[in-house]
């Protein structure tokens, strides 16, 4: 098995990782991406707010569902910080190139319309 190509892909992924901050003002959502450290968190391919849901895109082998993740939220000074942790590995065999989108209703976490959101997971390009 050749490890050099795998090491190059991992290095590229780490060099493009980031933390996502979404600032919503009167229904408008600004996404700010800043460099961050993954701390072993599940890498996300995309993050956005759509309607009243926080939508994340994650890698999948075909069986990933939203209940495969635990979601930690912390509210402080008008900012809600989210951390997504995969509870169960996706053991299916169909690699989904674009990953899958998972939706989490913001009202479940007490986020009001226009509230600021931060996602602590690293953001990587698929």
User: Into which percent range does the helicity of residues fall?
Assistant: 10-25%
Strand content: over 45%
Number of helices: 1
Oligomer: single chain
* Count of strand segments: 8
How is this structure best described in words?
This protein has 126 residues and is mainly beta. It is built from one helix and eight strands. The longest helix has 13 residues, at 3-15. The chain is elongated and about 40 Å long. The model is unreliable at 3-17 and 29-35 (pLDDT under 50).
Write the layout of secondary structure elements.
Blueprint: H1 3-15, E1 19-25, E2 28-34, E3 46-50, E4 53-60, E5 69-76, E6 79-86, E7 96-105, E8 116-119
Parallel strand pairs: 6-8
Antiparallel strand pairs: 1-2, 1-8, 3-4, 4-7, 5-6
What's this, in brief?
This protein is 10% helix and 45% strand. It is mostly beta strands and 126 residues long.
Offer a few descriptive terms.
126 residues; mainly beta; 5-stranded mixed sheet; 3-stranded antiparallel sheet; 1 helix; 8 strands; 10% helix; 45% strand; elongated; disordered N terminus
């Amino acid at each position: 098995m050749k490890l050099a190509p795998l090491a190059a892909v991992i290095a590229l992924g780490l060099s493009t990782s980031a933390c996502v901050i979404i600032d919503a003002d009167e229904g408008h959502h600004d996404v700010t991406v800043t460099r961050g450290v993954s701390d072993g968190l599940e890498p996300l391919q995309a993050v956005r707010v759509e309607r009243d849901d926080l939508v994340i895109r994650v890698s999948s082998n075909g069986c990933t569902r939203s209940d495969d993740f635990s979601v930690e939220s912390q509210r402080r000074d008008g900012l809600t910080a989210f951390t997504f942790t995969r509870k169960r590995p996706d053991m299916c065999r169909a690699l989904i190139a674009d990953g899958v989108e998972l939706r989490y209703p913001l009202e479940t976490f007490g986020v009001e319309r226009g509230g600021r959101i931060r996602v602590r997971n690293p953001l990587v390009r698929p």
